[in-house]
């Protein structure tokens, strides 16, 4: 292979000698060509980027994307072979053979091709701006063969290529000033004038790493376990510390898994950056909550385990990913128990006085695994850990699913006892040094070592997302024993441990099995005073708040209330109430301070309350809001959530008048069974009751001072970075009017990086018994009589606050003489980008008012789309009014969108994870 450094191209001549060790005759051959996944914007890799709202790949220049150009494929007789790329798999090559490959026969063929390396900004693999090449999955490789069939997996940035186990020999020619690092052994090194030729070799590899650098960044550490090459960036740890930590980690891993078979291993910064130790990487460096050596140790441990297992286990890395994750997380948890039992999840921050009262800062380091799994389970977004990696949403694939796998294997270890699990992992690891394996091999090893039935682990814990939740029923003491009724709240039948406690000391522990509904057990009490289910969290249980029971005493098991500043993670021992300073802003109340009380922890709860009393600075009165919500999450159904909601608020809508709003509602949430599809539907039913005080600034009448509106809404949307579609209908019924409306929105990012936004709105009155325009459709600004929109100056007709724009109803940006429609209205709004975030927009529509003819209006202008839906500016140019620059006062015609809600802005940055 020859490297053209300037063109970022690899020129490859490759021979593949294939030994058919299956029992099947092969008439075709399949190669992984994952580098070609970068070739255009319609590959599965590009779709994955789009699904996760990653813009870089779609906006990239052609020269930044990679590709593979196959020049020829010939067999051992130098006959040209036909090849194709399967539909929807541009990163796979199917070669049609002239002669079949019979069982236990060998076949060789030759390929000439060039590899255009992609920019590393997409996946961190490729070339960077320093002239370095970090290469992975760049070459044509035989795919994994199972039961006579080749595995067809496309590159989806999951690092799970399914290659056949191969022996490699590589001759590499690079410029003389380029350093070469690989987990293959580097043999001969020959000077070729301005270039250097390397010979690399390795046996029984799934794939290999190859790094070409202008300035070598890798350091080499050697011990009896392996030769370790690493370029971890941590200048705060001394060389002696690194050497000792690396030696300890590699020896500990060898003790848990067995001898590492490949001899050499690369532990790279790129691998860590792609899969960091979440929690450590999120805390700002200036806080320094952990010692520098501990940070290096945990980062190196995770990445070393990842590389070790990837190089050794010969599983299907997509279908059986949970086994990689389970072993990796299990050893990490064991390592912390053995060497860092005193470490807290938030490090030394737990010693800060202001934080000591927060449960989050008192949790042990290993407790994060359970809480981050529960984060998704409580949102009803968890997925079976046995699912293939490409079916996982990003948070599950990178965090919650891995942690659930580690928790599950630790759960099985606790249940089996006698070191059965660790022995099985070691034997399975050694088995992988000899042959290709699958999940059944792991299961067989485990079952052979115990008389206990562990089918529940694979059938339920691994293959389903069934949640586990046990609670106590009645408890009766009889002499030296107690009768305990344990209730299975979810019907998921797995073992659960019951503990007897006295002053937090464990008196006894007993595993309960086959608790299908309600089951009564008799247990000797010893001197236990309390009972606890799942006391040490060995079972990944959905709800830990109902796991306690007193043996004696007439008082009920009432949890005390605990008031905590700001917010905290759920503490199952308390009824938590959080309080936090807050503020609201509108023109009539000003920047108004308040104190928010709520019980919403970092984990979802069924019942959530939120009360925000606020002081209105400008009026000197009390304002604020409250809400009470009950979430009924429904498992394994398209209708995944029913939300019952009761809310109220009171703020000022004019300088001298307030409104009071009270809303009972119910919402039905529906989603696609494939959670990776960002496709949802909502049905909302609510009764909006409003009372407005009279104002000397705003004209009111009896009908629009006190009113009640029944509102039914249906919304459907599907979104990704390249395409967004939404549809909603709205029905409103009140004493003085009845309305129906519908809206369709469509956004599309094309392959040439042009973007179009289209919106169609239509609405009509079914009946109308009021002369007020308060309930009419607004062309450029809705009256918002339901008080749904965050208007900062909702009653303003002039000045800056009257220029606030919210896309609703007519959606016009220019202001016309007639601003409302009291019979019907239909409009279309569109925009198209002409350069980066600069767009042109246009609106057109028809509307009808009572006793007047139908009117047609239009407008157009320039839109600065600085942050879509959050910060935008509209500059009108031409409309039904004529040139907007005429008649002066142009600054008053500019419209703006500004969002200052923290919750709304957070959604902008978290949507790619969920």
Instruction: Choose one word for the global shape.
Output: globular
Number of strands: 47
Tell me about the biggest sheet?
18 strands, mixed
| CA distance, first residue to last residue | 42 Å
Secondary-structure class: alpha+beta
Helix content: 10-25%
Q: Give the C-alpha Rg.
A: 32 Å
Question: What count of helical segments does DSSP give?
Answer: 13
Mean pLDDT: 92
Strand content: 35-45%
Poorly predicted runs? none
Short description:
The chain is built from 13 helices and 47 strands.
Question: Could you characterize what this model shows?
Answer:
- The protein is an alpha+beta fold and 914 residues long.
- 17% of the residues lie in helices and 39% in strands.
- The chain is built from 13 helices and 47 strands.
- It has an 18-stranded mixed sheet that branches. The chain has a 4-stranded antiparallel sheet with strand order 1-2-7-4, with no helix packed on it. A 4-stranded antiparallel sheet has the order 5-6-3-10, with no helix packed on it.
- Strand 32 and strand 33 (639-654) form a beta hairpin.
- Helix 3 (239-257) packs across helix 5 (292-312), helix 5 packs antiparallel against helix 6 (321-339) and helix 7 crosses helix 8.
- The model has no long low-confidence stretch (mean pLDDT 92).
């Amino acid at each position: 292979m020859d490297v053209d450094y300037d063109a970022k191209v690899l020129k490859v001549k490759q021979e593949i000698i294939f030994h058919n060790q299956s029992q099947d005759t092969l008439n075709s051959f399949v190669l992984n060509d994952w580098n070609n996944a970068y070739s255009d914007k319609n590959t599965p890799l590009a779709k994955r980027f789009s699904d996760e709202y990653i813009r870089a790949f779609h906006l990239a220049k052609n020269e930044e994307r990679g590709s593979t150009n196959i020049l020829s494929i010939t067999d051992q007789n130098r006959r040209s072979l036909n090849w194709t790329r399967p539909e929807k798999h541009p990163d796979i090559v199917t070669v049609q053979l002239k002669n079949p490959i019979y069982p236990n026969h060998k076949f060789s063929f030759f390929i000439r091709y060039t590899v255009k390396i992609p920019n590393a900004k997409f996946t961190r693999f490729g070339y960077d701006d320093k002239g370095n090449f970090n290469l992975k999955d760049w070459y044509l490789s035989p795919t994994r063969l199972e039961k006579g069939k080749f595995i067809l997996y496309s590159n989806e940035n999951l690092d799970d290529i399914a290659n056949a186990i191969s022996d490699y020999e590589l001759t590499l020619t690079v410029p003389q000033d380029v350093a070469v690092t690989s987990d293959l052994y580097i043999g001969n090194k020959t000077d070729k004038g301005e270039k250097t030729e390397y010979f690399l070799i390795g046996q029984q590899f799934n794939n290999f790493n190859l790094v070409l650098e202008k300035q070598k960044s890798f350091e080499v550490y050697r011990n009896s376990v392996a030769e370790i090459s690493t370029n971890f960036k941590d200048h705060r740890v001394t060389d002696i510390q690194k050497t000792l930590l690396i030696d300890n980690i590699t020896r500990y891993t060898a003790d848990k898994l067995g001898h590492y078979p490949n001899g050499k291993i690369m532990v790279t910064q790129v691998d860590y950056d792609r899969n960091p130790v979440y929690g450590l990487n999120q805390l700002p460096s200036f806080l320094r909550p952990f010692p520098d050596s501990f940070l290096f140790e945990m980062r190196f441990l995770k990445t070393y385990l990842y590389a070790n297992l990837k190089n050794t286990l010969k599983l299907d890395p997509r279908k059986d990913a949970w086994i990689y994750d389970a072993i990796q997380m299990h050893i990490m948890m064991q390592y912390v128990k053995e060497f860092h039992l005193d470490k807290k999840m938030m490090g030394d921050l737990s010693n800060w006085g202001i934080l000591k009262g927060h449960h989050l800062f008192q949790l042990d380091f290993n407790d994060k695994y359970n809480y981050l799994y529960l984060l998704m389970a409580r949102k009803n977004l968890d997925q079976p850990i046995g699912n293939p990696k490409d079916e996982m949403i990003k948070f599950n694939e990178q965090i919650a699913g891995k942690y659930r796998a580690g928790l599950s294997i630790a759960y099985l270890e606790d249940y089996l006892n006698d070191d059965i699990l660790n022995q099985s992992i070691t034997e399975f690891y050694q088995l992988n040094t000899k042959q290709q394996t699958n999940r059944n091999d792991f299961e067989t090893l485990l079952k052979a070592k115990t008389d206990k039935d562990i089918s529940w682990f694979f059938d339920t814990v691994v293959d389903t997302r069934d949640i586990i939740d046990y609670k106590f029923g009645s408890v009766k003491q009889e002499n030296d024993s107690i009768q305990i009724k344990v209730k299975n709240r979810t019907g998921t039948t797995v073992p659960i441990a019951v503990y007897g406690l006295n002053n937090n000391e464990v008196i006894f522990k007993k595993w309960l099995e086959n608790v299908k509904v309600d089951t009564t057990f008799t247990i000797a009490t010893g001197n236990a005073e309390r009972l606890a289910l799942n006391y040490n969290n060995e079972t990944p249980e959905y709800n830990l708040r109902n796991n306690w029971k007193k043996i004696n005493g007439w008082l009920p098991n009432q949890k005390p209330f605990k008031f905590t500043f700001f917010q905290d993670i759920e503490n199952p021992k308390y009824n938590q109430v959080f309080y936090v300073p807050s503020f609201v802003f509108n023109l009539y109340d000003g920047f108004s301070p308040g104190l928010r009380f709520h019980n919403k922890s970092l984990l979802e709860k069924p019942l959530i309350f939120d009360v925000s009393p606020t002081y209105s600075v400008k009026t000197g009165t009390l304002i604020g809001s409250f809400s009470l919500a009950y979430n009924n999450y429904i498992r394994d159904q398209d209708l995944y959530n029913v939300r019952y909601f009761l809310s109220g608020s009171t703020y000022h809508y004019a300088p001298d008048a307030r409104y009071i709003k009270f809303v009972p509602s119910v919402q039905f949430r529906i989603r696609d069974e494939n959670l990776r599809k960002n496709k949802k539907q909502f049905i909302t039913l609510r009764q909006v009751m409003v009372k407005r005080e009279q104002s000397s600034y705003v004209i009111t009448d009896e009908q629009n001072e006190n009113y009640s509106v029944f509102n039914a809404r249906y919304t459907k949307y599907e979104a990704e970075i390249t395409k967004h579609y939404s549809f909603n209908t709205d029905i409103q019924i009140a004493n003085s009017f009845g309305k129906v409306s519908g809206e369709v929105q469509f956004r599309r990012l094309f392959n040439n990086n042009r973007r179009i936004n289209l919106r169609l709105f239509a609405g009509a009155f079914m009946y109308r018994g009021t002369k007020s325009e308060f309930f009419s459709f607004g062309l450029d600004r809705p009256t918002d009589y339901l008080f749904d929109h965050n208007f900062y100056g909702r009653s303003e007709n002039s000045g800056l606050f009257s220029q606030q724009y919210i896309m609703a109803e007519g959606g016009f940006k220019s202001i016309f003489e007639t601003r409302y429609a009291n019979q019907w209205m239909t409009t279309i709004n569109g925009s198209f980008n002409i350069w980066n975030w600069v767009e042109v927009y246009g609106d057109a529509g028809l509307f009808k008012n009572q006793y007047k003819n139908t009117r047609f209006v239009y407008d157009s202008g320039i839109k600065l789309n600085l942050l879509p839906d959050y910060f935008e500016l509209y500059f009108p140019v031409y409309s039904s009014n004529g040139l907007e620059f005429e008649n002066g006062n142009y600054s008053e015609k500019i419209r703006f969108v500004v969002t200052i809600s923290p919750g709304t802005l957070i959604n902008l940055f978290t949507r790619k994870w969920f």
